[in-house]
Specification:
mainly beta, flat
Length: about 350
């Protein structure tokens, strides 16, 4: 454990992270926000959001009076009325900007075509993917090409090199993959993905029942469905029925709980966190393996569960059967594939530490 920094006095802090073994965070003091990296403090602004670290320098959106702009290191970008969806690729920031009634993509010094709205923006290998609104119609833009117009577009992603999204036309909803459009559905569609060349999604019907559709096969109906993915070619999700939640993998239903958190898959079985009667468990298949007061940031690293747990208002990291020292706050949990260790930040009072386990 190594002490790496100190939070300034009389400050509230946000978005704590560790970058190049130095703390990076947003501080609020006397009504103004500023970024702290190591021992260096940035300029003060009316607001700061979307803090990240790119090529050795802090990157974020700053707000002053009625304008927003990008700050990269110490350099301030051009001012706009609003900025969203900040990312970074090949040495250049990319984001959505609004000026007047126009919305457009900014990538480095280049600006994309103007439209009436932009949603679901992402930069994939330097190529913008987004849904745009023009003359009250929605369409997808990718690699400079525009898709068919729709009344609305939701859940835009990229699957095997082609856009995949949900689109509304008239009263019906469709799944669109590239240029292919599914038949209209009267219900609500959520969580579309492509598994083994077949569409996978959840569908809510007018009777408020949900079920999963994989290719041409529909699953059992439930009160609600969340966290839909797949494992070994079968749908994997959380279902809710009569106030209880449980994991469904293919046709197999797991034990019932009050709530289910992160859902993973390991060693041929679902792996997840669950709460029953105020107690938090780690469940693998149908076996409850560990119990804690609270669990968060639960994921797999080196084929082992890695997570943050709480005991008596103190937080600690658990990895490979080992427990870290307890802290008032644990932040920025990562896995280093070279050392095969978990790395995270710990805070006790104003003191910040770099910890490995």
């Amino acid at each position: 454990m190594e002490k790496i920094g100190l939070i300034p006095k009389d400050c509230r802090v946000f978005q704590l992270m560790i970058c190049d073994k130095k703390p990076l965070f947003i501080a609020l003091q006397e009504g103004k926000f500023f970024v702290v990296y190591g021992t260096e403090k940035g300029k003060r602004y009316d607001g700061i959001e979307s803090l990240s670290f790119a090529d050795g320098k802090p990157l974020y959106i700053a707000k002053r009076v009625n304008s927003s702009f990008i700050v990269y290191g110490e350099e301030e970008g051009k001012k706009y009325e609003g900025i969203w969806s900040l990312s970074f690729f090949n040495g250049k920031p990319a984001y959505v900007a609004k000026q007047g009634t126009s919305w457009f993509i900014v990538y480095g010094e280049e600006k994309g075509p103007r439209c009436e709205g932009i949603y679901y923006f992402s930069l994939i290998d330097g190529k913008p993917l987004y849904a745009a609104i023009l003359r009250e119609k929605w369409f997808v833009v990718y690699e400079g090409k525009t898709g068919a117009p729709y009344d609305r577009i939701e859940s835009l992603s990229l699957a095997a090199g082609k856009p995949l999204y949900i689109a509304k036309k008239g009263q019906g909803w469709h799944i669109v993959y590239g240029k292919e459009e599914s038949p209209a559905q009267e219900g609500i569609i959520l969580y579309p993905s492509l598994i083994g060349g077949e569409l996978l999604y959840a569908l809510k019907l007018k009777n408020n029942k949900w079920f999963v559709v994989h290719g041409n096969k529909g699953g059992k109906a439930y009160d609600n469905i969340t966290k839909l993915s797949s494992a070994e070619g079968k749908p994997l999700y959380v279902a809710k029925q009569d106030g209880q939640q449980f994991v469904v993998w293919g046709d197999e239903e797991g034990k019932k709980y009050n709530d289910i958190g992160n859902l993973l898959f390991a060693d041929g079985k679902p792996l997840y966190t669950a709460i029953r009667d105020g107690k938090c468990f780690i469940v693998h298949g149908n076996k409850e393996k560990r119990r804690h007061e609270h669990i968060r940031e639960f994921f797999l690293a080196n084929e082992m569960p890695l997570y943050v747990a709480r005991k008596k208002k103190k937080w600690f990291v658990v990895f490979g059967g080992k427990k870290s020292k307890k802290f008032e706050e644990v932040f920025d949990l990562k896995f280093d594939p070279d050392s095969k260790q978990a790395i995270f930040g710990g805070r006790n009072g104003r003191k910040l530490y770099l910890v490995t386990i």
